[in-house]
Amino acid sequence: MKTPESTELLEALLTGAAPIYHPNTGEKIPEDGELTVTLSPSARAGLEAPRYCQICGRRIVVQIRPDGWDAICSRHGAVDSKYLER
């Protein structure tokens, strides 16, 4: 898969921008912040790689490696867990 030129997803994660869509469920985050689904314990702890783009809610391509993960949104670019110190 060709990596998109955009760096919006990486910038959003590095700056700590509030997500619009939940990275584990793809559900739009309501104003009150209450999700309608129950997350797994590892997702609640922030240990799982994202599965959805937090900007657009699209499913992203994730590659799990022994030392972390890579995630690519076709619209908002790629991010590597090494940038997040995870």
Automatic annotation (TrEMBL):
Keywords assigned: Biotin biosynthesis, Iron, Metal-binding
Domain spans labelled Biotin synthase auxiliary protein C-terminal: 61-85
Cofactor(s) named in the record: iron-sulfur cluster
Family matches, as InterPro entries: BsaP_C (IPR058605)
Pfam families: BsaP (PF26519)
Family: Belongs to the BsaP family.
Purpose of the protein: Required for the activity of the biotin synthase BioB.
Protein name per the record: Biotin synthase auxiliary protein
UniProt organism field: Corynebacterium hindlerae
